[in-house]
Amino acid sequence: MAVVDDRQVGCDGCGRTVPLEELTAITMPDGDRVACCPRCEPHAREAARKCSSIDQRRRTCDGCTDTILAPRVEDVVLEDGTVITCCPECAAQAPAADSKTTSASSETDEATRTADDTRTRGHSELTDEDEALCTQCNEWVTAERFEITTIDGRSERFCPTCTEAAEENGIVKAIGMRESEARDVLSVDPGASNEEIRAAFHREVKRAHPDRQSGSRSAFQLVTDAYERLQKDT
What we know:
- The chain has helices at residues 41-49, 88-93, 104-126, 160-168, 179-186, 194-208, 217-231; strands at residues 8-10, 17-19, 24-27, 33-36, 58-60, 67-69, 74-77, 83-86, 132-133, 140-141, 146-150, 155-158, 172-175.
- It is an alpha+beta fold.
- Helix 5 (179-186) crosses helix 7 (217-231) and helix 6 runs antiparallel to helix 7 (217-231).
């Protein structure tokens, strides 16, 4: 939350400056608290309610009863053979049988990596190399993915279907320009060389400059964003 003065503060959602009394504190799935203006509040509450769509799975510690991210949880085997689920802090204090203490997070991560490797190898043998993995639905798609920044600050690559659903659920903070959109702005072909892209940028940025009658600040920024987007792939 950005503090502007004693009465005006910035909304963590849209960044607008609003009176302090209009802000509402929302606790997000990762435990962070965000301050939202009336316009962003319903979106933040909906995102917090649908935590499974923007956050990792969570489990409850048998010791302190706190709810934490699943990868941080450890299964601890006590001396009498009882297995309890603990957060790292409680696991360190539990009277565990050292030889029987296992880390659920390590096993889960290893199993996930193995499954992903197997799936990736199988996919590379069976599908077109132009396909890419959507980080939301975990499906391989041929459509160009969207670069998504969620309201909790994570960067994701969503397919068009997941992007639309994420916007409807109010979990999207920003959507980056896609490569195809950038090429349209600069009027270059998919196979354009770096020199051709640079030449197109200089041509379009002159035309879009705010000092010209044909230009504006928004057009200038659009051309600049398009050029920067294409530079990511070079």
